């Protein structure tokens, strides 16, 4: 079966009831859009379709834009058996919550099928990870060209999408301005060791498992044969083998989220990937998700597959492998939380390890308050990437009054959050350039040094322990110490 693109109108009508407030923009003919024009801002309640030709082969994607100026672009790489339509609600949430353009592509060569039931989602066959990586790069460059000076471009991947995103991250792709295309990568339960995944699927397929049988066949189709036939291709497309290439591509950091009891993509793949990234000097945070708790949708678990085969009434307490269409599964939601922390609070990976416990509803240690801290660098889009942010409520933070005198040596800014909140993060911008970034349990002041010779503008952006982002801007005058007057001595006085 070819790509499922002949019935977009029917599919949209089927999905409107499923996605609620999220609508769809009108379809666009692939033949009529060799160089598609995309929107950079608009309604986050509308999923827009774009038709794109990559290396001579047409494909499509769905994207959602924020209301105001985008804080960045997030390219989502979906998992096995899914399509971009599985991501409509999540793309909309990213645009609303994180202020980003969010896009998901349908990988070239994937065999898409219409929904099996009315109101359902389409499905797909194919392990088209190399094509998906090329498609991700192409769509990122498209938005980079048409939405000038995006502050940052990120990869976000789930399951098989980890294989796709890892290859995209290793491709040494560049932005229009010559800087690295990708800044950060958030990988959720990613299949970053396809060689291991293929061998496991081969073994499970012997039991007659249809899912494993299809995965084995699809991986072989992508690689051009079995592992015995094409060992070098498998090695090249195994992401844990490409850490040096990812480093050379300029990626700044990676967040890995994985359930320890994952029954589809083993947890050890996240451990291997984080170790390899740190080994080559890429900062990586690993979030290990244990139990799921009462509010999380169940996932696919190892113990559920084994014990459940003996006792059908058994329910695993572990989080396992999340469905990427879920908006309650704890593994998936941890990934979305980390994207929000990156985009809204500039919390970058910093070689840390965390444990997520759904039963206790805790993340230990608390990533927002536990050092070491690394601040996200969103300078990939040029000067705009370093300009002061245009978001956050503008309030009084207790700064010195406007017009206060500042010496060239130093100028202390006292800080005070409204109410009884504590300031746990502060960024200071001097004439639009970030000069200070600090985190702590309770920050009361910061010290500016080497001030400009003339009047200057200071913008302070803080985050409180209640996760509120607040902003205040003041203009100050530069003034030096008054020159000392020499006392005249009387000639007649010794």
Any descriptors?
alpha/beta; 26% helix; 2 domains; 494 residues; 23% strand; 6-stranded mixed beta sheet; Rossmann fold; single chain; Immunoglobulin-like
Strand order of the largest sheet: 1-2-3-5-4-8-9-10-11-12-13
- How many β strands by DSSP? 21
The main β sheet shows up as:
11 strands, mixed
Provide a count of the helices: 11
**What share of residues are in beta strands?**
15-25%
Overall morphology: globular
Question: What is the CATH architecture descriptor of the largest domain?
Answer: 3-Layer(aba) Sandwich
User: Using only CA atoms, what is the Rg?
Assistant: 26 Å
- CATH superfamily label of the largest domain: Alpha/Beta hydrolase fold, catalytic domain
Q: Could you characterize what this model shows?
A:
An eleven-stranded mixed beta sheet has the order 1-2-3-5-4-8-9-10-11-12-13, sandwiched between helices. Strands 14, 15, 17, 18, 20 and 21 form a six-stranded mixed beta sheet that branches. A two-stranded antiparallel sheet has the order 6-7. The protein has 494 residues and is α/β, with parallel strands linked by helices. It is built from eleven helices and 21 strands. A hairpin with a 4-residue loop joins strand 12 (353-357) and strand 13 (362-364). The protein has helices spanning 8-19, 88-98, 129-146, 160-169, 194-205, 210-223, 231-236, 243-248, 268-279, 302-310, 330-345, and strands at 23-24, 46-54, 57-64, 73-77, 101-105, 111-113, 123-125, 153-158, 184-188, 253-259, 283-289, 353-357, 362-364, 393-394, 405-406, 410-414, 423-430, 433-439, 445-449, 456-464, 469-478. The relative contact order is 0.09. The longest helix has 18 residues, at 129-146. It folds into two domains: 8-193 and 238-364, Rossmann fold, CATH 3.40.50; 387-478, Immunoglobulin-like (Sandwich). Helices cover 26% and strands 23% of the residues.
